[in-house]
């Protein structure tokens, strides 16, 4: 195993880059953009679901559900809170042999923080939900600034279920 760095200089992940094993059929990186409007939320969810199925990603139903929930929450946040400065939202899906990462990028510079649970509040806990569901699935998530001054929020989950 060798540690490689993402193109944007972000967090490092371990990957076998020695050439000893060819990439799995499902490995790769896909990126698409959509207008920052409410209709893009279910479209993004369907696009990610279809991609996972088309590529034959070995993900169980719970993992797919978790990934789609994360995509929904992150795209919704961009649409609701960043559309004024970012008329487009980008969704990236990166799939390795043992992990899958979803990321949502917009051009708004504000770096959101996960709010704590307030049962009297009816909204505003999307990032908390993303953080907790990612942790429960054995993954990691983060918010990073982009070179263009915006932000990318991502979550990486293992394809092999974490022991409970």
What does this structure look like?
- By secondary structure, the chain is of the alpha+beta class.
- The protein has helices at 40-55, 61-82, 126-136; strands at residues 2-5, 12-15, 28-35, 88-95, 99-106, 140-145, 151-158.
- Helix 1 (40-55) runs antiparallel to helix 2 (61-82) and helix 2 runs antiparallel to helix 3.
- The protein is globular.
- The strands form two sheets. Strands 3-4-5-7-6 form a five-stranded antiparallel sheet.
- The protein contains three helices and seven strands; from the N terminus they run βββααββαββ.
What is the fold's blueprint, element by element?
Elements: E1 2-5, E2 12-15, E3 28-35, H1 40-55, H2 61-82, E4 88-95, E5 99-106, H3 126-136, E6 140-145, E7 151-158
Antiparallel strand pairs: 1-2, 3-4, 4-5, 5-7, 6-7
Distance between the termini: 26 Å
Report low-confidence residues grouped into runs of 5 or more.
1-18
Alpha-beta classification: alpha+beta
Q: Calculate Rg over CA atoms.
A: 16 Å
Strand content: 25-35%
The major pleated sheet works out as: 5 strands, antiparallel
Element-level helix/strand string:
EEEHHEEHEE
Give me a quick take on this structure.
With 164 residues, this protein is of the alpha+beta class. It contains 3 helices and 7 strands.
Features:
single chain, 164 residues, alpha+beta, two-stranded antiparallel ribbon
């Amino acid at each position: 195993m060798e540690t490689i760095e993402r193109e944007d200089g972000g967090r490092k992940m371990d990957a076998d880059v020695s050439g000893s094993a060819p990439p799995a059929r499902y490995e790769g990186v896909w990126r698409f953009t959509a207008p920052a409007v409410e209709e893009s939320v279910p479209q993004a969810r369907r696009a990610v679901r279809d991609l996972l199925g088309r590529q034959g990603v070995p993900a169980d139903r719970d993992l797919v559900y978790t990934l789609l929930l994360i995509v929904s929450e992150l795209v919704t946040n961009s649409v609701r809170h960043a559309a004024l400065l970012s008329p487009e939202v980008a969704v990236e899906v990166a799939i390795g042999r043992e992990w899958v990462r979803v990321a949502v990028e917009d051009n708004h510079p504000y770096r959101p923080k996960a709010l704590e649970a307030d049962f009297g509040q009816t909204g505003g806990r999307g990032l908390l939900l993303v953080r907790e569901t990612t942790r429960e699935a054995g993954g990691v998530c983060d918010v990073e600034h982009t070179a263009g001054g915006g932000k990318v929020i991502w979550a990486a989950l293992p394809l092999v279920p974490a022991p409970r």
